[in-house]
Amino acid sequence: MKRLQNKWKKGVSVAMTVLLAGSSIQIPARAEEPKSWISKNALSVVESLEPVAKTAVAELSDKDRGQLAKEETVYVIANADGSPEKLIVSDWLKNAMGSETLEDSTELTDIINVKGTESFEQKEGSLGVWDAAGNDIYYQGSIEKELPVDLKVTYQLNGRTVSPDELAGQSGKVKIRFDYTNRQKETVAVGEKEEELYVPFAVITSLVLDNENFRNIEVSNGKVVNDGERTIIMGYAMPGLKENLDIGSEDFDVEELNIPDYVELTADVTDFELAATLTVAANEIFGDMDIDTQEKMDDLSADMDELQDAMNELMDGTAELYDGVLELYDGTGELTDGIDELDDGAKKLDDGAKDLDDGAGKLDNGAKDLDDGAGKLNVGATELYSGAGELYNGIGTLKSGAGALFAGVKQLADGLGQLTQNDTKLNQGAKAVYEGLLQLANAQLAGFSAYGVTTLDPSGKTPEQFCAEIEAGIQKLNVLADTLKASMPGLASRMAPEELPADKAAEEEQKEEVPAVSEEPAEKEEQPAGADTEAAEPQKQQPQDVEKVPAESGNIPEETKDQKQEVQKQEVQESEAQELKAQESEAQEQKVQEKQEVQEVQEVQEPASRENSQVSAEVVSEEENREAEPWAEVSERQTVLVQSSQAGDAQAAIAELKQKLQLIEMTKSTLQLLEGAYQVYMGVGSYTQGVDQIYAGVQELMKNAPTLNSGIDALSNGAGKLRDGAGELKSGTSELKSGTSELKSGTSELKSGTSELRDGTGELRDGTSELKDGGQELRDGVEELRDGSEELRDGTIEFNDEGIQKLTDKFNGDLRELSDRFEGVKSAARAYQSFAGISDKAEGNVRFIYKTAGIEK
Fold first, then answer.
1. Other C-beta atoms within 10 Å of 125: how many?
2. Strands 127-131 and 120-122
3. CA–CA separation, 854 vs 636, rounded Å?
4. What's the DSSP call for residue 801?
5. Which end of the chain has fewer CB atoms at under 10 Å, N or C?
6. pLDDT, tens digit (0-9, with 9 covering 90-100), for 621-638
7. Residue 66 Cα to chain centre, angstroms
8. What's the whole-number mean pLDDT along residues 666-670?
9. Beta partners for 110?
10. Which own/partner contact pairs does 191-195 have at CB distance under 8 Å and 24+ positions apart?
């Protein structure tokens, strides 16, 4: 009884193993190997059934063990719609006893030995003898025969049935259905009567779909596994089993057992393309179930209880699988988060590497500058050492001279004390000189107001602004003087020849004032300053007196004019003699400069003396270009004066112009004296203030003399230490120079390394970006796996509720009849042992492998 229970449990377990075999198949490493992978793993699924068969063989009796065993595999090469194109049958004769010859029966043609050289002799009908020589025989052949299980594959696109060729390259909602029609029946005993039952086949179909083209994949009965790049579908069916178990009882509805006879999958497809599919059909799992109907029904019920327990364990396993997948899903979430952080870190690392490379470049440049600076520092340290020695020696001299210094400071303090007593008088005297010269200058400038020259006003002006105003007045007078000098050669050319002898004194005076370069004696410039000053004084008169001369010069005798000039000269001398004495040396220098300027004017104007009007215009134009806008008014007014003078007596006009020139020179001298006096006035104020400050400082110095002596001693000690430290610094800078040279070489190597690091982090950044994309795909794949495991768990529960549970319930109600039918199903499975034929002396099993053609664009 126990043996019967074990065999029943083993048969049911084998069936469940076949139905869930896809869960143990490994996923191919590369997506481009789906065809070879399907072939390899589909065969492994079939071969996984072999341990069951071997176990059954091990339990055979000695008589059975001596029989010949034949294992047959039928390969069906089919079109994409499932219709067969070619059949290839592979047989394996198992020579367990090591017989020399083996008798065989087969319907195959074109038989070939595929693993040896043993020969085959054909006998009557389909019988034949193999010269086995104790070996197993492996052979193949062809056959034309209807298959026991018919495969039909249909395709729908968006609800419309299409052919495989029409579906290629299309996109949309696709449904693929594999229908399995069982055509093989065997007459077997079912209880006390005989019936025709379908040979029970377990059918498994597997196919691989590319995730780039297929999304939202669902299968009616089976398992879906997604590895991120592709999805593997394993669907199962048992065609004919539902009909075999139909006992016709009102209490037992076979439809509720949910035994599928087809596999259907749906998916959202882009650019449809499908690799070859594999389908395996085998009946041995049912033939291996050994249920003795003669045993008591309670044993069978106990077996059903064990089946229920096994199903409960299976449900627990699927629940644990779902929980594990949930943990895996959570783990992939953490993984993708980590990958995101890794990608962000790689980006920061790449940015940091770029910054590091830039910094290394700057460091390299800085190291070069540091090396150059260290060299200069070494040179400077050497010079510092020499200087420190000289400083130390000099401080010794300083120390010895400190006593003499303080004695001198005492004398200086006494002298400064006397100087400070005269500060007020000195300031007042400087101010009186400055104010007197200011009044004199303004009195002289007032005579030139008609020519655009204004008086001076220091009110509200800084010293710089007031000096600039004085300089501007001098420049205006220079322009006026240059214009007058330029007109004199033209006036001289208008004098008649007979007038020249009578006017010899005027001519000599003109030569003295406006000498030609070639006629000027060298001794002239060396005359005392007073001589030139006295010569200039007769012409210094008020402008209103000078303006009267041209009007009267036409009727005044030469003697009268000379006398008048002499009188004017004496008047000027008496009024300004005292002032001119203070500026004799300065006037002499100015006089020499003016003579040189007159000579230059004569050299420019002499060639044009015959064309007076043209020369005057050119001179005016030249002066305008040189002096520009500030002197335009002065030049314009003086030109009018010259032209009005040319209308009268030329000799009188020349005399008048000379007087104006002398007055201009005197006024310029006064302005220069004024500027100097003003600066002296300002300087005296600064001087007296400085004397006071120096006196206060000397007094402070006298107070701090003891401290200074102590400081000199400390300075001497410090200088000694400085000299010693400079020596050490000199040695240290030499070592620093060596170190900076090494640093320079090191930073160059660092720069090369950071450049390589920068390239490497760029590649790392690219890799983490790809890893990030892959992590997201993995996340999506695990999410689909989670959904699939949830469906598997729910499907297992449903299978238990709708299948096993109802099956056990119905067994409790119709146990005997159902047991008879199971015995009949087992007998039908055992009865069908070969597709191409088998000897009566042999035991065999057969499986069918269907390979459909792929659909390519």
1. 9
2. antiparallel
3. 113
4. I
5. C
6. 444 444 444 444 455 555
7. 81
8. 89
9. none
10. 191/816, 191/817, 191/820, 195/824
Q: Is 139 exposed, middle or buried (0-12, 13-18, 19+ CB in 10 A)?
A: buried
Give the CA angle between residues 202, 206, 207 to the nearest 5°.
160
Cα 118 versus chain centre, distance: 75
| Nearest residue to 409 via CA among 420, 397, 401 | 401
Q: Which residues of 266-281 are buried (b: 16+ CB within 10 A; e: fewer)?
A: bbebeebbbbbbbbbb
What gap in Å lies between CA 685 and CA 690, rounded to an integer?
8
How far is Cα 494 from Cα 653, in angstroms, rounded to an integer?
A: 11
- Between the CA of residue 588 and those of 395, 416, 438, 583, what are the distances in Å? 51, 37, 22, 9
Question: 304 to each of 199, 267, 287, 471, how far by Cα in Å?
Answer: 23, 38, 19, 133
Quickly count: other Cβ atoms within 10 Å of residue 661's Cβ. 23
Q: Pairing state of beta strands 214-219 and 262-269?
A: antiparallel
State the pLDDT at residue 340.
85
**CA nearest neighbour of 673 among 436, 401, 415:** 436
pLDDT attached to residue 390: 82
Q: How confident is the model at residue 262 (pLDDT cuts 50, 70, 90)?
A: very high
**Per-residue pLDDT reduced to its tens digit, 324-376:** 888 888 888 888 888 888 888 888 888 888 888 888 888 888 888 888 888 88
> In Å, what is the CA distance from 650 to each residue of 552, 647, 685?
12, 8, 52
Residue 562 CB coordination number (10 Å): 15
Q: In whole angstroms, what is the distance from residue 67 CA to residue 273 CA?
A: 49
* CA–CA separation, 827 and 196 (whole Å): 11
78, 151 Cβ separation under 8 angstroms: yes
Mean pLDDT (the chain) is 74
Structure tokens at 32: 């481009």
* Chain centre distance of CA 552: 95
H or E stretch at 792 = helix 705-799
List, in order, residues 6 or more apart from 236 with CB less than 8 Å away.
Answer: 18, 19, 202, 203, 204, 205, 221, 222, 260, 263
* Structure-block tokens of residue 160: 């419309």
Q: What is the 3-state secondary structure of 661-727?
A: HHHHHHHHHHHHHHHHHHHHHHHHHHHHHHHHHHHHHHHHHHHCHHHHHHHHHHHHHHHHHHHHHHH
Tokens in use for 341? 């952080």
Q: pLDDT value at position 34? A: 38
- DSSP secondary structure code for residue 479 in this structure: H
- Tokens representing 178 are 């594999």
Please give the Cα distance from 111 to 818 (Å, whole number).
43
For the chain, give the number of residues: 857
**Which H or E element spans position 142?**
strand 137-142
Examine the pLDDT at 139 and tell me if it is beyond 80.
yes
Query: What's the Cα-to-Cα distance from 396 to each of 201, 385, 391, 403, 405, rounded to whole Å?
Result: 123, 17, 9, 12, 14
| Predicted structure pTM score | 0.40
Neighbours of 695 (CB within 10 A): 19
With beta carbons less than 8 A apart as the criterion, state whether 440 and 579 touch.
Answer: yes
pLDDT digits (tens, 9 = 90+) for 13-46: 344 444 444 333 333 333 334 334 334 444 444 4
Beta-strand runs (E) in 199-316: 202-210, 214-219, 222-226, 230-237, 262-269, 277-282
What residues contact 375, with CB distance under 8 A and at least 6 apart? 737
Tell me the pairing of strands 842-852 and 214-219.
unpaired
Whether pLDDT at 1 is above 50: no
- What the block records as the tokens of 335 is 């993984």
End-to-end CA separation in angstroms for the chain: 60
